[in-house]
Write a structure and sequence with these properties.
The chain has 164 residues and is of the alpha/beta class. It has helices spanning 7-13, 41-48, 62-71, 82-93, 110-113, 127-132, 141-157; strands spanning 18-22, 52-57, 74-77, 100-103, 118-121, 135-136. α3 links the parallel β2 and β3 (74-77). The chain starts with 6 loop residues before the first helix and ends in a 7-residue tail after the last helix.
């Protein structure tokens, strides 16, 4: 997908060990502009390389569960406060803030954005969230997760990252 990556993205993404996703957008962003389902090949490759993926949702939905299952991502539904999940995963995995990517969804993610080393937002996120994000994806929902995974994959293929 990405042949060249900005140097700043390589530096920020090469050491990523956890990707945390606000899955509330999965219901509306299940398919990309071409109508295809999200591609999980980069997620699978990263998981084999030691990168963990987790998603959270404030609501409970079969559509959200379906996309998370398609992507092979652990899903935590019905969470009123994602900050607790962030802290628990960080502690459980022994991961530093700088090694966490957060794919945001809404204004409730702003406190998490201040903690994560890299935050991204989909194009349909509120403007305040996009303004605080380091990167704005081209896609929403599951395809946005695939997009971020492909960025991380390419960053890790650069010198200093892991190789297959």
């Amino acid at each position: 997908m990405f042949q060249k990556l900005r140097t700043d993205l390589v530096k920020k993404l090469a050491g990523v060990r956890l990707v945390l996703v606000n899955a509330d957008g999965f219901e509306h962003g299940r398919a990309n502009g071409n109508g295809s389902l999200p591609d999980a090949k980069y997620i699978s490759a990263l998981r084999h390389g030691g990168v963990e993926f987790a998603a959270f949702s404030r609501s409970k939905s079969n559509a959200i569960s379906s996309v998370a299952e398609t992507l092979g991502i652990e899903l935590h539904q019905g969470l009123p406060d994602a900050l607790g999940l962030y802290d628990a995963l960080k502690s459980e995995l022994g991961v530093a803030d700088k090694d966490i990517v957060l794919l945001c969804g809404g204004e409730s993610d702003i406190p998490l954005m201040g903690k994560a080393g890299f935050s991204a937002a989909p194009p349909d996120a509120p403007s305040g969230v996009k303004a605080r994000s380091y990167f704005v994806t081209y896609h929403s929902g599951g395809p946005a997760v695939s997009e971020i995974a492909s960025l991380i994959y390419v960053a890790k293929k650069h010198p200093g990252g892991w190789s297959e």
